[in-house]
Amino acid sequence: MGVPEGLKNIWAEAANLIDNGNANQAVKLLREEAWNLSDSDSDKAKTCQLAADAFVELGSENDNQQKKNWQSAYKNYNNSLKFEPKNKDVRRSLNQLTGLMDEAGISLGTSLQIFDDGSPTPTGLVVILIAGMVLLVGLKYAGGIINQEETLTATMEISYVPAGGDEGDRTTALITIELFEEKAPDHVDNFIRLSDSGAYDHTIFHRIINAFMIQGGDFTNSDGSGGHAAQWYGYCNGETTNSQGEPYTSETCRMEDWTLGDEATNGLKHTPGALAMAKTSAPNTGGSQFYIVPSDSTPSHLDDIHTVFGMVIAGLDDVTAISDVSVDGESPVHEVRLVSIDIN
Prior knowledge:
37% of the residues lie in helices and 17% in strands. It is of the alpha+beta class. The protein has two domains: 5-120; 153-343, Cyclophilin-like (Cyclophilin, Beta Barrel), CATH 2.40.100. The strands form four sheets. A nine-stranded antiparallel beta sheet has the order 5-15-3-4-12-10-11-7-6. Strands 1-2 form a two-stranded antiparallel ribbon. The radius of gyration is 22 Å and the shape is globular.
C-alpha cells in the first residue's frame, strides 16, 4: 500500500515551510493533519522525522527556546527510528543534533513533543498533567504520600534459542534494568548515549559463561575486541597522557580508543542481576561492552574492580536462561541477539 497522495502533499508543504522559516506552521500542520493520515510505520516515521526537523529549526532560530525545541527534536527522531530502525538519514540527523546539544550543554532529556510512542500530544497532555497534579494533591491531604524519584530504566529486547533447542525454538525476552545514575554517572551516561544512538541495536552477546555472566556490547567487531565509549570522557585506552606526558584529547586519541574512568568503588556489588562494565585488566579501559550477572552467580571477586551501574528488575529468569544456552567454548552456538535497548 502506497503513501496517500494527501499525506505526500502535507509532507511537501511542511518541508517547504521549514525551509522558508515557518517551522511553527509546519509543526501545526504535522500535528493536526499529517499524523491522522499516517497509517503505516513508514508514514509515521516520516511524519516524526519532519516534526524533528521543524523543532531543530525552531531551536536554531530562538536561543531562549533552544533547549525545549531541541529536546523535542531529539525525542521525535528517536520515535522515527522506532518505526524505521534502519533509516540512515534519520540516524545521521540524530547524531548531528546530539553533537549540537553537547556543544550547547543541553541534556538529552525530553520536553514536550508532538508525538510520543505513536500518539500526538497537543494541549491534551497539559490537561492530563494538571489532572494528575490535582489528584496527587488530593491524595497527599487525604492520607499522605511518599515522594519517589522517577526510576531510570533500560529495557533490552533479546532474541535467543534456549538450551538444547534449534532456530525453530528461538524466543524473545524483555529485560528491564534500573540504571544508577548517581552511583555511576559516566557509565550510565555512556550507556544511554550508545543505546539512544542505536549503537547496540542488532548486536550480539558474544561471550556467555554458564553460572557466571552474559557479555555483549561490541558494536564494531562483535567478538569482544571492539567497541568504544560514546563520547570523550578523558581516557585514551585507559590513559590520560601519552608516552611524552602530554594530555590526551578527543582529537589526539582515536575514537576507537575512547574509554571511561572506573567508578567501581561506588558501593554496588556483583549480586544476581547486576549490569556492569566489561574492560581489560588495566584500569579505566571500559568502553561499550557490558555484562549481566544471572541468578545463579555472585562473582564478588569483580567487586570494586568492574563498575556496576545497573540492576535487573524484571526478566532475570531470561538472563539466567540465556547464560544456560548451548555454547562452543564461550560463544553461543545460536546467536544471542540484542535487538534494541529502550531507555525510559
